Amino acid sequence: MAIDVPAGRGAAADQRRRRPTWIPTVAAFLAIAVCLTAASWQHRRMLEKEALQTQINVAAAKPSVPLPADVADWNSWRFRTVTLTGEFDARHQILIDNAQHGGRVGFDVVTPFALDDGRTVLLKRGFVAGGASRSDLPSPPVPRGPVTIQGRIDIPTQRYVELGEHVPPSGPLWQHVNPQEFAQATGVRVLPIVVKDLGSHAAGLALDDALPETGIEKHISYMMQWYTFAALAGGLWVWFTVRPWLRGRQRR
């Protein structure tokens, strides 16, 4: 006995069998392309950080020398250990907000240091914990008279994320170290670098003489995650698109 299948149902079933397979294919290849692009970017960042870490290690291994004069590009001196001789300018000392050290929140203390040769450089002396309130700013003492300091050169970044319009600081509390902005605000012309104090002239401030970490492991982890996502997208495409297509061909 023959059973007639309604034409509408047969057409619907045939349409389901013939639904386009290019849509999941395009989606899968787009997902794979995005993941591989992100992984490639993380790989480039990893190589950049490796080069920076090599620069840090090589610079730190070199012996300490007097702060050079007539430097055209301070990037070649970044992370080098140098000796400074001169006096602190206590009147223009500033505090850098939102600093952390050993789980405590406070301020980084930055003081201008007038060199014997007439130049002035900003010296990052160390960390001081915050007071009971924001209105109670600490006032770390400053050594008097000529001193010789050993420190490490760094170049402050100019890329900061700020909410709202930037307002130049006018008091002792600053958000970032910016030698150019410091010179404009105080009238004290300083070198475009910051020297981190590594010696015993912190006057009770907490010192952190560890070399900076570049975070290479983070980029390796993100790169592997994106490669895993790309492989997962490819595997899902094979399972849900290629596999049914091959099984259909085998039934013919």
What are the main properties of this structure?
alpha/beta, five-stranded mixed beta barrel, 4 helices, 8 strands
Any overview of this molecule?
Helices cover 38% and strands 21% of the residues. Strand 4 (104-115) and strand 5 (120-129) form a beta hairpin. The chain has helices at residues 7-17, 22-61, 179-186, 216-251; strands at residues 65-66, 81-88, 94-101, 104-115, 120-129, 147-154, 173-174, 194-197. The longest helix is centred in the N-terminal third of the chain and has 40 residues, at 22-61. The two termini are 26 Å apart. By secondary structure, it is α/β, with parallel strands linked by helices. A five-stranded mixed beta barrel has the order 2-4-5-8-6. It folds into two domains: 25-61 and 211-252; 80-159 and 168-197, no CATH class.
> Whole-number radius of gyration?
31 Å
Quaternary structure annotation: single chain
Q: Give the proportion of residues in helices.
A: 25-40%
Into which percentage range does the β-strand content fall?
15-25%
Overall number of strands: 8
Structural class: alpha/beta
Instruction: Give the N-terminus to C-terminus distance in angstroms.
Output: 26 Å
> What is the averaged pLDDT score?
85
User: How many strands, which pairing sense, and closed or not: the largest β-sheet?
Assistant: 5 strands, mixed, barrel
Flag low-confidence runs. Answer: none
Strand adjacency order, main sheet: 2-4-5-8-6
Our count of domains comes out at 2
The ordered H/E elements are HHEEEEEEEHEH
Sum up the overall morphology in one term. elongated
Helical region count? 4
